[in-house]
Amino acid sequence: ILNKCNVAILSALPVLLKQFNDSINDYLFNQAKEQQDVTLQNDLFQSMETINSNREPFESFLQNSINQNLDNISVLVTDESFQEIQDIDEQSLELVSDEEFNRWLANSKVKQKIERHLHEEIKRLEIRLGKVYGEPVNRDNNPYGPCLFVNAFQQAIESLDIKKQILPICYDIYGKVLLTVMTQLYSDINNPETTEQANINTEESPRDLPNLYDLVGEIRNLQALVKTNLNASSEMQAAPAAPTAEQTQPAVPEFSTTEV
User: Fold this and answer.
1) 98-106 long-range CB contacts below 8 Å, 24 or more apart?
2) pTM flag (> 0.70)
3) Cα gap 115→179, rounded to integer Å
4) Which residue in 30, 32, 85, 174 could disulfide with 44, CB within 3.0 to 4.6 Å?
């Protein structure tokens, strides 16, 4: 199951990255066109330029981060960054800067959004993983939970020079794209028979091929039947025709008028 999860995630990554890039560019461009504030408009255009010019390193950063986590799935690791907002007290808030808090808030909102919409799918996967690891798996230590994707995104997006007021927009767009991708991802992971059945339908199964010996036997039976029918037809043509009713009647003598 761990191998299947890894394969499914690595297959979903290109789709996730492409959809995010397309969506963030469209959104930033449209927002910049409609923005009356020149400063904010420039920030939007500059952020869009930064994302486009650094697309390759950004995607490599995110992929490498996820790959490193997948390489270490043999041991469950608790993600302490996934903490409910109400669990943080005022004293803790005083110890962090506004920038760090906003970063944590954006990260947590995306994780909780995914968990809220895909609660049943995630729970099914956690139960299956618990049997593999031999210990309870929950949202804090699920190696294939939202944390895997959101934490990797946070590290990748913060490696770029994005204006802090634009970062929440990036998180929001990424969260929407991630929800779509993870919905299909968890469906494939939790219902492997769907994918396997699709593969069976597209490939010719050896069990569906007729047995060679059976084919030879059927051909020989067909040849024998044809030969029998041909012989019967030949015998019917060679035999004398049966007399008709007219042939069995006595011949009527013909009388000459001169003799009469």
Assistant:
1) 99/164, 102/164, 102/167, 102/168, 103/154, 103/158, 103/167, 106/167, 106/168, 106/171, 106/172
2) no
3) 9
4) 32
Q: Which residues of 72-99 are buried (b: 16+ CB within 10 A; e: fewer)?
A: ebeebeebeebeeeeeeeeeeeeeeeee
Q: How far apart are CA 203 and CA 199, in angstroms?
A: 6
Whole-angstrom distance, CA of residue 60 vs CA of residue 205: 39
Measured CA to CA, the distance from residue 144 to residue 139 in angstroms comes to 9
3-state SS class at 257 = coil
Q: Give the separation between CA 154 and CA 173, rounded to whole angstroms.
A: 13
Q: How far apart are CA 78 and CA 139, in angstroms?
A: 9
Calpha distance 145→162 (Å, rounded): 26
* DSSP H helical ranges for the chain: 2-34, 38-53, 55-71, 90-94, 98-117, 119-133, 146-157, 167-190, 192-202, 212-238, 245-248
pLDDT digits (tens, 9 = 90+) for 23-76: 999 999 999 999 889 999 999 999 999 999 999 999 999 999 999 999 888 777
Q: CA-to-CA distance for 46 and 59, rounded, in angstroms?
A: 19
> What is the percentage of the chain residues whose pLDDT exceeds 70?
66
Q: And the tokens for 81?
A: 């960054």
Q: Which residues of 171-207 are buried (b: 16+ CB within 10 A; e: fewer)?
A: bbbbbebbbebbeebbebbbeeeeeeeeeeeeeeeee
- Pair 171, 106: CB distance under 8 Å: yes
As a whole number of angstroms, the distance between CA 230 and CA 228 comes to 5
Which residues have CB under 8 Å from 102's CB, separation 6+?
A: 164, 167, 168
